[in-house]
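Input for the complex:
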Amino acid sequence: MSEKLGAAQTPALQVTDLKLSYRVRGRDREAIRGVTFTINRGESYGLVGESGCGKSTVAYAAMRYLPSNGKITSGTIVLDGRDMLAMDGDELRQLRAKAVSMVYQNPGTALNPTIRVGDQLVESFVTAGVHRHEAGERALAMLRQVQISDPTGVMSRYAHQLSGGMQQRVVIAMALASDPTLLILDEPTTGLDATVEAEVLDLIRNLRATFGTSVLFISHNLGVIARMCDRVGVLYAGRMVEEGPAWELLTNPRHPYTVGLLRCIPRWGLSKELGALDTIPGFPPGIGAAVKGCVFADRCGLVQDICRTKEPGLDPVGEGHASRCHFSDIAQTLPSAERDMVPRPPVPETGRSALSIHNLRRTMRQQGSSFQALAGIDLEIAPGEVFGLVGESGSGKTTLARSVVGLGAPDAGSEISLEGKPLPAKVGQRSRDQVRAIQIVFQNPDASLNRRHAVRQILGRALTKLTGVHGEQRARRVVELSESVRLDAALLDALPRQLSGGLKQRVGIARAFAGEPHLVICDEPTSALDVSVQAAILNLLVRLQRDRNLSYIFISHDLGVVRYISDRIGVLYLGRLMEVGPADVVFRAPHHPYTEALLSAAPSLEVREEHRIRLSGDVPSAAKPPSGCVFHTRCPRKTGAICEQEQPPLAEEEPGHFIRCHIPIEELRRLQKPEAAKEAG
Amino acid sequence: MLRFLLRRVALALVTLWVLSVIIFLASHALPGDVGRRILGPFADPRAVATLDHSLGVDRPLLVQYLTWIGGFVHGDLGMSLSFHVPVSQLLLRGLGNSVKLAAVAFVIVVPLSIFGGIVAALRRGRLLDRIITVGGLSATAMPEFVTSIVLILVLSISLKVLPISVQVPPDADPLTQIYHLILPSLPLVLVLFGYIARITRAGMIEALESDYTRTAVLKGLPWRTVVIRHVLRNALMPTIAVVATQTGYLIGGLVVIETMFNYQGIGQLLFTAVSQKDFPLIQAGVMTVGIVYLGATLLADISYSLLNPRIRLAGRE
Amino acid sequence: MSAVISFPRLETAASARRQAWTERLRLALRTPSLLVGAAVVLFWILCAIFAAKIAPYDPLQPDILHKLLPPSAAHRFGTDGLGRDVLSRVIFGSRGILVAAPLATLLGTVGGTAIGLVAGYFRGLVEEVLMRITDAFLALPTIVTALLVLAAVGGSTTTVILVIGLGFAPIIARTVRAAVLSEAQLEYVEAAKLRQERAPYVMFVEILPNVMGPVLVEFTVRLGYAVFAIATLSFLGFGIPPPAPDWGLTIAEQYTYLIANLWWPVLFPALAIASVVIAVNLFADGLSQVLER
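Predicted:
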């Protein structure tokens, strides 16, 4: 610690004009087009950008760990005052062992599957120079520091025996073993559940305070960056376009790209009634593409002739704040790319029901043991209504979606009916009208579109099977369908891999709409996409729903997205609905303690620091659900024995607002008032 | 893990049963009657009928199958038609001899090919890798009788370093016996080398490119430690399964090698049985080959599950 | 988002597809193992087609007065134990195997692919039954399976093709099933079910095109083994019947001369087999390299 303070003058990491290219098919393609930044001692620096902008490449370059086809063509990387590019293999190894560590996106694969977790951790200490006799003790102490319960037990386990959150804690413990000068975190919580992510992020903050480590934090999520970093750099197409203090940059962006990016995000309180989300049209220049002038010029709403001929410098626009734009002073006047203002969406017709689900149960078998994925769901969805479904992994939201479309049969006694008429459980037993009435948009278009079929074949086949059209009529309908999702007819002969992620998802949406459905299930339709693309897809879904007045069940783990698009929201936990109500009501206190935890876990851009409630531990296994209220093992507001013994009913506490909790709503209202929270804090 | 193993044993038994049905049907239910096939198209019909009766092949198929498999379970494999001795006696001796030959081949090939695969993976894309991969591929694809000819020509006839004959006095010391087995085992070694080296190399490359190897490198471990501690164990697990399945190919090769070198193992026995249409010996011999193969894969499964904590610790929480 | 999203990088999708194929072709032309393999196989195909024109002598005509002559200007590869010209026999010998091996492989690939698709797609009982039968076949080396059947029905070129095809089908079925299993988990298969497609459509139109890569590689690898197995069966006397100038058969007939160091009647057919086998495998290796990228 004292050593670190002593060296406080030299920055932890200094990257100067870094250029890097990958050799692909015999040609060097530039991925990093000159990046400069400095991370000071004890500072937390965030690098944001959409996929393909080069942020992970920069991180690995900072450890001088590149694939064999990657080459640093110019620039310097100085870590802890030492020039990394001038080091030989042994010096580099010493540096990695003692001065810099990394935490990666998939903790499950980052740990060796055949070596005990404890041995891997001990190895990190030994490599960092700790004596072998001492290393075991130190490892155990470190596990305690990363707040692992039962550290002795965890030491003798293998990676696959730990949950994702625990694995990431172990990886963090390994990274901190050497008490490094710089800790690089590459999307460390992507793929973790929201409540676990919140815990891990808190842990990282606390550890940083304890160890005084400098941090390079890579993320695509601006909310996470806002919470975790002192300063932020925005990368676009391998170029740093804006840099500044985190809060300043996120509230007062001075580059059109940052401005556009922030406008794409469905923020708290934003909903489809208030208008369409803004988008960033076009595509970033590909790796290796020759760029003249400003890298963002092709997509910028403020573009002028000078932008295409002369690249702007990264010029200061405020205290420690710089933007690479000729027009940074007017960046915030960037015109909205979404001129087509979405008018008010239809008001759901209450009283009638498009879909009604009664006592839906589904028992699944996994490795010999059976568990209830859905434990009695009751739900009514009105025509023209968007019902949002949120929940963490294992909550049963995808099982619910699959049961509704008829993939996999629910248990006996479950009832699903469409517009008042009972639906057969399996899609094979349903009539054509029933099949075309309920369709689904899958999460990952790479998996849901056949990679050997052209778009025309994908859409044409769906039209034929769902509506019975053939020949010329079908050809015409294919074009109409593609236009309805704003897909250029010239792309109809493309194979999915020739399309970008957003275009692929448009094909998936068009296919679901081929049979003019009454209900479309959207299973995380935007979670594989970048935020700017997500915004365009959300706008499309809203417009389609407005034009056709149909219903959606919209599944997502992103609360902002669900809030934006939904009329009503259901919160699912271990196969049970914990809360159901109108979107704005569910998001406003009082709510179920689990909803409260989810809301406070979500990284937001609006509130900088506030009192948050945190859940400890992981979601219990659905095979052995807790007794009584299934949430009692993690509930911060658990009142007593009743929670362990008796399952509360899903009671209508206010008109249209259902909560499954023993605590009376008045009490919840009092507990969840901001003032009460402050007192408690 | 017990569950896993029990399941594997049960599967192997079911497979064995299916195999017995296939073998039985292949030798009985094919067109033409057995006696006629043995005696030829010009034999006296009465002689054919007598032979059919003495073989019991005029009884219903199911009865024949049950008699055969029942005898098999009790170790009674019937009498060989061509050797006029109990089949079990022939097979036991043949198997013993074949195991000796196969053991010599395995002892040479397993360390050599695994080492070759590891070296190729560590030198991926370089000259040594190409030599091992392409050379191994070519050797694997070569029929044993072709390589035998070249080896006999070079090693026995031109250079005279290895004896061409495998006939050694039965009281010869073990070293002499092994010495005489080297030449016939070399074609088998060549066939197996490419196969095992290839799988080892693939497993190594997968492990080398894995995230946990990256973790180990970025920890600052020396490259040797990374390879020995983190890569090898994960990389060699698939190789075990492959070594076991190769016993199958090995026996196929033994038929050729033992026939060429006139070595009295199970391969030559099978060849003779097929040439002489000695059906009791064919059935029992083929069945034995299947049992050896299934036993070897089962053994591989067990060692794989011992090495893989995911399976070893399954069901223990 | 008022404008229709356009495709900025490529003019039309069709031209993009053509480009992908030319790219692949260029890659193939830069893969030496593919080229060498193809050239050698082509050489033997030409030999087989034009054997009568190339071969200097009649491959079946014995000439007892000139038996076992070493290679010379008159007989470049010498003569065999019956005085037949070895070079002519090697040239004519390519015919049998170059017909039988591809046919047997094709048979095994088609059959195995069908079994693998059905087993991987239907799962459950169908899969269990098919896989147990496949496993049982896999427990026997192809040569042993072939001998078992050939003992019962007798050898001829047709039965050899059928038997090798039968022996290969389970091996290919395994590979295809594994590929189908991972494909069937993808959501495009569910999407097909959600418009009530029938099983054959899903298997052959949706899944099959996506597993063609492994099938193609498996075909070429198996082709090498077909040459291996057919030559071996001929050598053992269960393949193409004499007096055909088949390589394996020739080696079996002339093999005893080896002890007397009369190597040429045996070595040349052996080298012929070796060259075909290696060429086919080089081709397979190159093809999988091209398809992988």
